[in-house]
Write the structure tokens for this entry.
Amino acid sequence: MDDTRYPTSLGTSNAETITLLGKDLAGELMGQVSFGELAFWLVSMRRPTPGELRLFEATLVALADHGFTPSAIAARLTYFSAPESVQGAIAAGLLGGGSRFLGVTEDTARFLATALATQSGPSPADQPGWDRLATAVLAEHREARRGPVPGLGHPVHKTEDPRTPVLLRIAHEEGRYGPHLELFTAIGRVCAQVLGRRLPLNGAGTCGAVLADLGLPVELLRGFALLARTAGLLGHLAEERRTPIANQVYASVDRSARYVAPDAQPTQCAPEETGAAPPTDLP
């Protein structure tokens, strides 16, 4: 007899009931918990406090949409090509969530978590202490030539990402301003003196610091960015149905194509010529 067992503490069902997280789905969860609360609970295996939930859902809102990003364009073009496949269009948009878009949420949290884990002694007790730690972290990162600092800078919001102060305020109000946010904001304060120029704290990077301070697994934080962006992509598909633009995008690119003979050496624009931002500067 096969004695294989597959343990799970998430969901199960029988002919009469559905159980999720130890609760009756129909009788105890539906209509009584928000989707954001459930998402937090499913990953952390604990129900968030009201303050944690407010901050968590603020990050989801902050990451839901940022205009005609590559993920939104990919979703719209896929929907134009295969309107019978909503799932394919959303998947196309999510597949672009990497190091240049959306991934900065997780990359920033990893960067901060690594810096905090490798410091000697207790965490700083005041702002000057955090500034000293941030200075050391940035100097080491620069000397090691590891590239752009995750979470610093934005291609559009050159002075301040409008999402960042709101997230910081809510974190303060809810008493969830932890070490990841402390280090991240200190990095923002000292970056000019270490790196030679001031860069704003990216809102998506701030979300990463927030989610890490909420105790969510750093390795899964990109998943929360994708969860939030799914809502945005669904909105883009709904708008594509109301006001289609995908065919125009396709036609514009097609009409602008310039054929280059295979044996020719095409001129390529350098990032600084196109105004392209470093990978981690993107939303």
About this structure: The longest strand covers residues 11-13. Confidence is low (pLDDT under 50) at residues 270-281. The beta strands are 11-13, 18-20, 23-24.
